[in-house]
Amino acid sequence: MSMVIRPLTADDALALQKLRQAAHEDLTLGTPQEREHGLAMHRIQETLVKPFRTIGAWAGSSTLIGAATVSPVPKDPWDTDGDAWVGLSSVIVAPPYRGQGVARGLVQACIDDAADCGFVGMLLEVNELNPAARHLYDSFGFTVWSGPSLFYEVEGDPFYRVSMKKMLATGPAANHPIDEGA
Ligand SMILES: CC(C)(COP(=O)(O)OP(=O)(O)OC[C@H]1O[C@@H](n2cnc3c(N)ncnc32)[C@H](O)[C@@H]1OP(=O)(O)O)[C@@H](O)C(=O)NCCC(=O)NCCS
Fold first, then answer.
1. What is the per-residue pLDDT across 84-136, written as a single tens digit (0 to 9) for each?
2. What's the CATH number of domain 3-181, 1.50.10.10, 2.60.40.1120, 3.40.630.30, 3.30.1370.100?
3. Ligand 1 in contact with 130 (CB < 6 A)?
4. Which of 34, 93, 107, 165 is the best mutation target for the ligand 1 pocket, counting ligand atoms within 8 Å of the beta carbon and taking the most?
5. Around Cβ 56, how many Cβ atoms within 10 Å?
6. Which alpha helices (H) appear in 94-175, and where do they start and end?
């Protein structure tokens, strides 16, 4: 399959909403409120402009088959070393295109982009019972630094999440406080 990976722009908002709808019923992706929030057009538009960056994968010129969003992590007021981290979220591939390396290409593009922008590390949260996502992040060298902890319940079923991190650069950042619990 020929695939083009590029940052999305405001013009891609509808395509991104349609893509997210494809994963809307997946309960491992968050609380019902979070999933609704992720589909709201105003929220989608926010993720297409700075300081967010959403990278998309296209099959041909007009079919958005996957996307992932990178956003700066708000600075901890106690963090005096000046390191800047980013969060990776909303990694979604349309069901018919899964298992073909689309997410791998997207995550690699997000990592490269964040490293080019000078961010020292990437954080994410993933449901413990999401083997595809866990395998993907493990294979990129993300490691668990917190959890699993109960994040939410849907109709009595518990969902546990882990927080993962990956350093994007070496040097002083390796001593960042977030490493202490790893
Ligand atoms: C998770 C998701 C993004 C993976 O997308 P994808 O394009 O199918 O993933 P890729 O084809 O790039 O595969 C990446 C790796 O995961 C592995 N993988 C894919 N599906 C898997 C599964 N069901 N179980 C275990 N591993 C799986 C692949 O084998 C591949 O590893 P490999 O290169 O070592 O063989 C996709 O399943 C999805 O959109 N799920 C719903 C949304 C979601 O859960 N997002 C993550 C939120 S944190």
1. 899 999 999 999 999 999 999 999 999 999 999 989 999 999 999 899 999 99
2. 3.40.630.30
3. yes
4. 93
5. 23
6. 102-116, 131-139
What are the tens digits of pLDDT across the range 34-86?
888 999 999 999 999 999 999 999 998 789 999 999 998 877 766 666 678 99
Q: What distance in Å separates the CA atoms of residue 147 and residue 161, rounded to the nearest whole number?
A: 6
Q: Where are the beta strands (DSSP E) in 26-103?
A: 53-59, 63-72, 85-93
Separation between Cα atoms, residue 46 and residue 48, nearest integer Å: 5
The single-letter code of the amino acid at 72 is P
